[in-house]
Predict the structure.
Amino acid sequence: MSGESAFSQDDFSLFEKLTKMVQANPYLLLIIAVLLGEEFLFHSPEKSSPAWQELLSWPFLETSDDFIALMQDESPPALDVPVVVFGHTWCSLGSVEFKVWVRGDDQPIDIKTNDDNLTVEETIYPEEDMDVAVAMIERGARTMQQRLITFAQDIKPDIDIDLLQDPTMTFQVNFEQMVKKLVLVMTETAYKHYSAWYDSAFKVLKGKKWKADVAQIFGGQPANTRSRCGGG
């Protein structure tokens, strides 16, 4: 089984990566991809906006926990609660989709297939519609269970496989834990947006301040960094 998530990478790059993964391991039985879409395309704070002024007034990068603590919405982080700090949206989740593939009888997984028996795409947010996806995941898990039994028997033909064949063993998707992890991904993405913007904007700000300080030292004239001796 293999699992991948896509937030910072586009779908095309993800599917290309999965295709190469199957080429490297054609016996994969189950692949699960989680596709997360931002509600709005992220953009940096406008110059002189409240977020720009407040966050750049600090001479250091906030830690992730301290940054998230600045969220305007005081309710606990959730999928439907965008990360807004000083009036700027740093991450807002628009959708969470699950794409599932299972291996056919005698062919490797085909990432490009549209065969309903081999792939399915459903959503967990904003609406939860995962019945078919969960059924396909369980089907893939059962196939892995059977392959494990076969593998164990190949190693030791007289092995007791009763526990491995237990029909009460089921693959269960813990949606509560999954949502918690997705919320964590959302807040981590917000912090990555903030830290990348801060590093870039602060360097520009420091550069402008350095030029202003130098200009003040030289009486408002541009600094000449070359030393000149003599005339001519």
Summary: Residues 210-218, 220-232 have pLDDT under 50 and may be disordered. Residues 175-217 form the longest helix (43 residues). The CA atoms of residues 36 and 96 lie 5 Å apart. The helical segments are 11-24, 50-56, 64-69, 131-155, 175-217.
